[in-house]
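Request: Have a read of the protein record below and say how the chain folds.
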Amino acid sequence: MILEKAPEWEDRYLFQHVTRWKHEADPDEFKWGEYSVRNQRFRLVQGVLYDMEKDPEQNIDVTAEHPELVDSMKNAYEKFWDEARPLMINEEVPLAAEKPFHVDYNAQEASRGIPEWEAPNLKWKESYEGGPTGLEN
């Protein structure tokens, strides 16, 4: 599909949920927090629908013009949540007294310091049709 010029692509919904909740809180209380549902053309963000083809910056609310699509996207999100919610199995696991990443970072900083990050020099491989296909080793 990646190398095809005009691949057949069935429209589908993609889901995003970025809400955080306190440890041992009920995730269901945050279900309709920061979420979005999108397809190839539209994106529903916390109940507001945008036409990304006509309005890529997502400034114009088109919810009123497409109520059936909004309902469909909300129903699909409900189904997504119902499938994803049972997988949230670590909600009651006790938190560590110390966060291992912080411990390791502080130990490295104390012993040898944290080096300045340097951006890598990346070179793209060219495909047989002249477009990029990935990074060179």
